[in-house]
Design a protein that fits this description.
The structure is a homotetramer. The first copy, chain A, is mainly alpha-helical. In chain A, 60% of the residues lie in helices and 7% in strands. In chain A, strand 1 and strand 2 form a beta hairpin. The first copy, chain A, is globular, with a radius of gyration of 17 Å. The first copy, chain A, binds a DNA duplex through helix 3.
DNA sequence: GTGGTCTAGACCACT
DNA sequence: GTGGTCTAGACCACG
């Protein structure tokens, strides 16, 4: 489990943590059932407040990525591979849609955008 | 000149205005030298505070999209076609890079992403 | 808008607040679009920390009961009457199911339970 | 004697055990004088800590559902049928009262609630 | 030792 | 003045 925070980034720290954990769960890098390190440990290692870590964990729990068992810790929630794939596709599609909207408002054609995408990948 | 605000959107209202004006300047929909409507008119039509409109205008002036001539209003700044294209490319490139980073962290290949992009355009 | 907290209750304060607001939104006592008092005011009047109030508000926003607009306040979310009714029915049904499960495990018949319910209403 | 625990449930494990034993005593499924299996057996079969089982047993003893005889184990306490019925009624009444409060705050009438109850039983 | 809740402050961006 | 985020503690229930 690799985590890092960039305090200079404009996105809130708890959001950065959320994204990293969620990505790793969706990509399979964190397998269902795996125990996460205690909140206090994460807080100490990253140099952020426990409450900040908890905010991230709270959202991850609410959104079904983690489950918490008081007294024993937090764990990756059991999610089927198919539902993981479906969520990944959905997230990616909305990101693509946002890019397309940007491109259109800047007057860029589909082929220009595709070419640019292939260059930068 | 078409402007609209979505108060339910999480992005600040002044930022929404900024993005719309900047896009129209870059795409050529707003030609250099064209006069913008007075701040108080924009404020009234969109139902937002004059201060909010002013914030957007301030940033647009600071970033070189607009120029203000005291007593006569704000105008689209004189920007050459080549420098407009260069900025457009730069903005689009960073948007593409963000998407590529997303895709990579979700374990999506270049060809899958390109296909998805063509579908959604 | 009437709110109260019972610190002796075992349910967390932020949960008590959540339930009260959600109920009032669902019953129509709080109409869509209505502005809520500022978090600081609620905090002061109830004698609880701002963070506790914010926890409640956060969940209400996440669950679609409220919307927040930075700089201007929190408002009751626009929810149609039909979707309110559907949620009410759903909540009530699960509460009834819990009661029925209790009754069955205690060996109480349907008629006995109904009679008791009519008495206590 | 059937026991089970759901670690994903938000209610504490020891509380889940308590509720199951108490229900079975009140409904007569566990007759007064009957011996309970040793704590270590329950612990092993359910995959929970002995301390957790012990906590449940402690509360059951404190509340008069069980009695412990050092050296021979725990037994269902001698409770008269009439006092069992009285407790059952009391527990059920408070559950009904909670449901009624819910229903009232959601603006549901007595007849609507009764009908729903009959449907779901 | 673990997570769950709460307090009393603080600074920032937005309106 | 409003909400959004963050800090540095604290106490409790649970396992």
């Amino acid at each position: 489990m690799r985590l890092s925070v960039n305090p200079n980034d404009k996105t809130p720290i708890y959001r950065q943590l959320y994204e990293q954990i969620a990505s790793q769960v969706l990509s399979g890098a964190l397998q269902p059932g795996k125990a996460l390190p205690p909140i206090r440990a994460v807080s100490r290692e990253l140099g952020v407040s426990m409450i900040t870590v908890r905010s991230a964990w709270d959202e991850l729990i609410r959104d079904g990525y983690l489950v918490s068992r008081t007294g024993s810790g937090c764990f990756v929630a059991p999610i089927s591979q198919t539902s993981r794939d479906s969520i990944r596709l959905q997230k990616l599609t909305s990101a693509v849609d946002a890019l397309v909207a940007d491109a259109k408002s800047l007057g860029v054609t589909k082929d220009q955008l595709c070419e640019l995408l292939r260059e930068r990948f």
